[in-house]
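User:
I study polymers; will you set down one protein's sequence and backbone structure tokens?

Assistant:
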Amino acid sequence: MESLPHCETLLLEKNGPALHVTINRPDVRNAMSLQMVAELSTVFSQIESDLHIRAVVIRGAGGHFCAGGDIKDMAGARGQKAGDGEADPFYRLNRAFGQMIQQVNESSKVVIAVTEGAVMGGGFGLACVSDVAIAGATAKFGMPETTLGVIPAQIAPFVVERIGLTQARRLALLGLRIDAEEACRLGIVHQTAGSDGELREQIDRAIDRVRQCAPVATAETKALLHRVGHESMSGLLDSAAEKFAKAIRGDEGAEGTLAFMQKRPPAWAGEEH
């Protein structure tokens, strides 16, 4: 396993097959700074080829997930001027965030978002690119950008992918804030927890399920799901059949079949695999 990068805005802890990433700027409700964006991107880049890490659990310190973009970075960008041939500082700031969100969305790892307190703007977008999202009782979700005179430029496409155009329109155009129960009904999160103990149990269950699934097969499945709707169905199914044949002939396919016949857990279900 590769060593984890040093981060100033994130706390990193490896536990079994999961990397726990805690956004650690509680004094500003974990607002997303450019440094945090860069550090999240570095973490996901570094773990991409590490088969020992199969899940990434993202949560916030101090009772909040992430309250959106950092006002100081916005003020700093306002004071900058684009040089000749350079992009507008606000464009660079916004686009860097979008690139990180896309990277998390397409990560081969199972991304588990544990949402509590403020889940706004960029934090809302981060929740919408998770594979499993769990909401604590205090979670409040929203896209407040239009109430601030700006637009949810980088997160809007991912919100539409998550909950569909009609619900995304209502949330974005009215700048609504919704609770955990409504977020679950809309499909922003998959489950809610009424207490800290229940939240921990749901996280543990999700990680245990990740452990039962073969890492390469899981990564290939996630990549396949992301291709749906972006290419012709017949071509997609041709490609998927090729990947299926490769998988079943590969090490994981052989081990999974043998384990099933021998009525034992597959090798990857062990603690350190």
